[in-house]
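Entry for adenosine-5'-diphosphate complex. Fields follow.
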Amino acid sequence: MMETNFFDTKIEFLKGVGPQKGDLLKTELGIFTFGDLLQHYPFRYEDRSRFYRISELREDLPGAQVKGRLRQLEVIGEGPKTRLIGQFSDGTGSMELVWFQGISYVQKSLFRDREYILYGKPTSFQGRFQMTHPEMEPLTPENERGGYWQPVYNLTEKLRRRFIDSRTISRWQRQILELAGRQIRETLPDSLMEKYRLATKLQALWGIHVPGNEQHIHQAKRRLKFEELFYNQLRLIKQKILRKTEYPGQVFGRAQLIRTFYDEHLPFDLTGAQKRVIREIFEDMRSGKQMNRLLQGDVGSGKTIVAFICMLLAIDNGAQACLMAPTEILSDQHFQGLSVFAEMLGLRMGRLTGSTPKKERKILHEGLLDGSIQIVVGTHALLEDIVQFQNLGLVIIDEQHRFGVAQRAKLWQKNETVFPHVLVMTATPIPRTLAMTLYGDLDLSQIDELPPGRKPIVTRWKSDQHRLEVFGFVRQELAKGRQAYIVYPLIEESEKLDFKDLMDGYESVQRAFPEYQISIVHGKMPAKDKDYEMQRFLKQETMIMVATTVIEVGVNVPNASVMVIESAERFGLSQLHQLRGRVGRGADQSYCILMTGLKLSTETRMRMKVMAETNDGFVIADTDLRLRGPGDMAGTQQSGVVDLLLADLSKDAEVLKAARESAMQILEEDPELVLPKNQPIHNQLLHLRENESNWARIS
Ligand code: ADP
Ligand code: MG
């Protein structure tokens, strides 16, 4: 048993917290212990180091601290327009203070002609400065000198109502830090601290919660980010090493089936990049160690055929393969595409999605269990416990960013004797930093070449006013026998409105193109109807497809060469890129037209510009990360891997690189972390693991 750690002390035992506030901290912020509170880092700071004179105020200040006297306080207006107005002056000028809420409370707690220190955002109104809902406290000998930076913490309305604000939190932080004193263990080895000139853990915690100046904040953040990324990488790399040394994999040596496929059925020559990644994957599948590989390749780069060839290797050696896709449409398309090949080779292939009828399921379950079905293609439904294999040898996960790591693990366990080889395929190019943290435990293969004869898609950005012109262009393309997609956003929060937009859009498309058959596909349709419409479009029975983003991933209709994206401003960059990837799959010149309104934010303009300028998925992914931050990038929320508290993958690439290199070096020299100099790492890993199991118990 480890002795109770100081940091595991329950938060209610902190002086001033107590059981009631303690409960609130637990339910509102998930803070249970002293350690949890210390890890509740501020997200910004307010400069309380100096006082501004009223005459010095500027509108561009994010906030300003002012010392002065409250001259007047009166309630103005009636009903919902009631507000409390104060006049505040400091000898250099005066300004107005305004409260719309909590008026009676504020009125009771403030006194005319007293001196206060206040902090707020200065705005100018009719030539005079104003502060709305400023923070105010009476001037005292302690606070009259200023000289500190106030951390601002994430809080909830409920906490604020109980008077727990950022100042309260930082007071508690200080109390814990004072109590902790020397108990704060160093978690990084000396060598790293020296090499990167990092602050100690103790300095960093003081610096982040109780900074005296900007330099403290900067040093503290640098140190804590490094630590965070270092342990993130250390664990991923450790995991990777462990798999390579501990987990055996089936050895797939025979490749007769593949030879037959190459010689007799393959409809085109593989690109150099496809051949290279197949070699890399085969090497893993023959190594006797379990494969965990990420296959990256932009939309249209030809990942599906690579996946199929890898399946053949498993099957030729008596094992089964499964392919999991994130949507029903996509999995059906894989199924249909691959069943042509499977048939040629005399293989049995099954499909399993949420809408597979019971009877069919039963047949499938039996076939997988007795080994008579060699390939199964499906959705999440594959994860269900009832799906058992005779010998699952290869798991392929398409468009991984939609799946979580836990789901990856679930598929592993479908073979209890030897874990199956795992190949994860992503079409969204992922910025390097994100890839390192999301997939840092996987080996990487990259298809960096498109099949020959593809013409880069021409992308244009047009405002709504040009719709007639755009439809005219679409008509020209249709006249050449091409097909077109017209895509509408469907975003859950305003589903009803979006749905109306889609239907209105559908009607206007019908009116504009009376001579053409039109398909419509959206998420609310039963899978079978969606499928029916997709098939009609694929067979060129319909020439225009009006759709929501359900067509985003994977769907392949080579004759479709025009894509119009309505309300393009409502899509993220990666999503736009994915959508655009639906065209440009045949030999014809393809076009993507982004339609937007006129009033757009700078960020949106940037997005449209990047789309119009480049087809390079990596440039797009990097821009996306820069514009939105990793929290909003497709898939990172569900992934559960990137739960970084401080580090920002869009800004901290350098720190991440240093952290990853350090972790690799250390593990190379001392894989078990037994050397005395690595003792702090060993201890910290134990501590992290213990914390995790605590969490598992709580949640
Ligand atoms: P993605 O990587 O986006 O999944 P797909 O596997 O769907 O791409 O391939 C896109 C299209 O390119 C398909 O129609 C496929 O048959 C075709 N394709 C794949 N590889 C080649 C190749 N080497 N030569 C020509 N066409 C190819
Ligand atoms: Mg694909």
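NOTE: The CA atoms of residues 186 and 201 lie 6 Å apart.
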